[in-house]
Amino acid sequence: MSRFGDTASNAGALALLESSDLTKDLPVTIKTLFASAFAASFRMFLTPVDTLKTTMQIKGTEGTALLRQRIKAHGVGTLWYGAGASAAATFVGHYPWFATYNLLQEYIPRQTTTARKLGRNAVIGFTSSIVSDTISNSLRVIKTYRQTHEVPVSYRQAIAEVVAKDGVVGLFGRGLKTRILTNGLQGIMFSVLWKAFE
């Protein structure tokens, strides 16, 4: 659902901005800023679903009980813990991904054979994912830490605890290799399929 929001935000913002004489000549990177703002807003709306999913992934079967206890002790607003980091991570991940994607679509020459079209789109998708994941990883680490912590913690406290445990490398690099591999493959598939259906 979140990938749909990201894609719809990019396609919708570009189409909307292309339709206006005032904005159609803006650089693609500026148009992508608008798309990223829409995507970040959509992710904030989905934060409770993401909190449930992430807590269950990290805490297993105890996850729902932990969330119930947090809601009972601190209110339903705890389902939005990490929403700010989620929106920031979405923006910081979405913008470089789609800015890279949109720029490469503009500047890498279009191909005529099916194999070359697929290869071009695969390279664009993988490159976009590497750029995005590298830039946004630290925000995702903090978002996950806050979402899955037993008690509410501030962003500052979450950063301090992650750095104390894993160092600055942990803050910026925790899970990054896996993220690049999985999101890179996902970026390849998305880019190839999106262009095939477009």
Automatic annotation (TrEMBL):
Bilayer topology term: Multi-pass membrane protein
InterPro entries referenced in this protein's UniProt entry, alphabetically: MCP_dom_sf (IPR023395), MCP_transmembrane (IPR018108)
Subcellular location: Membrane
One Gene Ontology cellular component annotation held by this UniProt entry: membrane
Solcar repeat placement: 27-107
Main location: membrane
Keywords: Membrane, Transmembrane, Transmembrane helix, Transport
UniProt record similarity statement: Belongs to the mitochondrial carrier (TC 2.A.29) family.
Protein name: Mitochondrial carrier protein
The organism of origin for this protein: Physocladia obscura
